[in-house]
Amino acid sequence: MEKKELLVVDGLKQYFPIKGGFLGRTVNHVKAVDDISFTIHEGETVSIVGESGCGKSTTGRAILRLEEPTEGKVVFNGDDLTQLSKSDMRKHRKDLQIIFQDPYASINPRQTVSDVLDEAMTIQNVLPKRERRQRIIELLETVGLNAAQADRYPHEFSGGQRQRIGIARALSVNPKLIICDEAVSALDVSIQAQVLNLLDELQEEYNLTYLFISHDLGVVRHISDRVIVMYVGKIVEIGDKHSIFDNPKHPYTKALLSAIPVPDPDRERNHIVLRGDVPSPIDPPSGCRFHTRCPFAQEKCRVDVPELVRHEGMKDGHEAACHFVEEIERGEVKPRELAVTAF
Amino acid sequence: MAETILDVRDLRTSFYTDEGEVKAVDGVSFSVPKGKTIGIVGESGSGKSITSLSILRLLASNGKVVGGEVRFKGDNLLAYSEKKMRGLRGNKISMIFQEPMTSLNPVFTVGQQISETLIEHQGMSKKAAMAKSVDLLKLVGIPSPEKRVKQYPYELSGGMRQRVMIAIALACNPEILIADEPTTALDVTIQAQILGLIRDLQQRMGMSVVLITHDLGVVAETCDYVAVMYAGQVVEYSDVRTLFRKPRHPYTIGLLKSLPRPDADQEKLVPIHGTVPSPLHMPVGCRFNPRCPAATDLCREQLPDLFDDGEGNQVRCWIYNEQWPGEKEVDVFGEERIARR
Description:
The complex is a heterodimer.
Chain A: E1 5-20, E2 25-41, E3 45-49, H1 56-63, E4 71-76, E5 79-80, H2 86-92, E6 96-99, H3 113-123, H4 129-142, H5 159-171, E7 177-181, H6 189-206, E8 209-214, H7 217-223, E9 226-231, E10 234-240, H8 241-246, H9 251-259, E11 271-272, H10 299-303, E12 319-320, H11 325-329, E13 340-341
Helix pairs in contact in A: 3-4, 3-5, 5-6
Chain B: E1 4-17, E2 20-33, E3 37-41, H1 48-55, E4 63-72, E5 75-76, H2 82-88, E6 93-96, H3 100-103, H4 110-122, H5 126-139, H6 145-148, H7 158-170, E7 176-180, H8 188-205, E8 208-213, H9 216-222, E9 225-230, E10 233-239, H10 240-245, H11 250-258, H12 297-301, E11 307-308, E12 314-315, E13 329-331, E14 337-339
Helix pairs in contact in B: 4-5, 5-7, 7-8
């Protein structure tokens, strides 16, 4: 069954100017997101993973035009969002909501929960005023809070409860797509599990589509249907969850997965330890951006930018941006050094 | 079990606030065997960081250790004078923190900050200390240390700064390294580097490590023994394999079941209901009882001790005591039932 395409991101670029010098001219750009394309189907959960500075949050913000994208198309339900006027975009935001990492910073401390939800509904003109109170109570119950809490202020809630308020606010306008930007990262595990389960249930009930941005690969494995791996502004690998976790092809994905500490003391620990730090997106490495840390890097990698393509032995929809996927698989390209340690 | 280098007994630390006394740490006991790594795990507010700060007596002015003992090679550190304590910190017992940027002084070079420790504790000359600083930077795997030693913290990446913190902590060959969430602010590939480094240096120098973390993955990979903390108390203490294979305290079981695993598929996470209690209003009896699916009246009335199973594994739960009034097999968070001993 072919699923409906809900969001198509095509050639998205987000450059931030760096002002400097005597006259405050633009001296360079931070290439936070540099030409990425992907599609999200209705009802699925797609995650973007990567380390700090890889552009995953910027991608989420660019889709919503919280920052104006430098280039590229963001087609939602057939409309290119980048071409809309400000007021048309505002109307579309009803369909695209976002939940942020920090529930302390993303809710106005001077509004009661009821005000927070009411404001969202007023802006999007969702319900006549007299029906809203009832809806607010329903929403609170949906996210596991209760009617008695509607007139309380954010500081009276714990972190997990505040994140539930953020979810209720996103739901209040009946969105189709919710972007969760590190939405559970600040929560303790026992609370995180409550919120993850809630997101699961809501998806089923309202046929929601999630774009889940996270650095926590355990969370990503749990919640995603498909996964996008980013490195310094580029997509290095994309595929369904099992392809990415059980059959990763890009050397960066392999290193990233092997670096995660697994809660099992008996597991054999072979970490591929990458040397050095993530390069700066201001002046990213030439060719493949991972070549400076890649144990397999060849001359070609320094020069040519690899395309995101499906190689031999990869399932449909599983693509990696590496020149030597097949050669590495066959053992023809060997790592320069043994970069494996057990700690 | 190896020789015990640090023994914490019934440690109690309180903070005095406008709203009353907050018992942040309330009867914590554990011991650290020489050359081993012990993990202290718990969620926000469990008292894990305050425990480590209490060991080194680095509490804020409104905090006070009100009871217990911290024995370092037999000596009670709580009875030390402030001067004697200062001679110990950064020398015999060192500490590294989560956020390397705020722990380093922004207006001194990396070399000056490492040297400070060496000059203070080992009476080195400035020149000798600077030379040793270069060696230490090399030891923690910083490339071109001669150049880095003259740089300021802002010129280094997060991973590099944490390496500098480790260099400072290791300058005097400490016997114990206390690491409070040392990799929480770092990306996973950098975390792997830093954890590998700590493990490597520990083996070379034979020091003991107290690792404070909320990450059960990090615990499984780096620790020999684990103390699980909840609401200011240790609720379970055991070797790492037992903790993950046969967790006994319902809180530990709940934690493991709520954890989304990167290495396996799970249909559904099993969360622990409710939230951590406020330290101002601790529940009567077992502190976990309001969230525990197995709680009985006994749990709601009386706080259980840390019961020892005779093999050095301890658990603070009535299920493992003769007084347990419930069934022989207890259902905790679904599926398997845990059998009483």
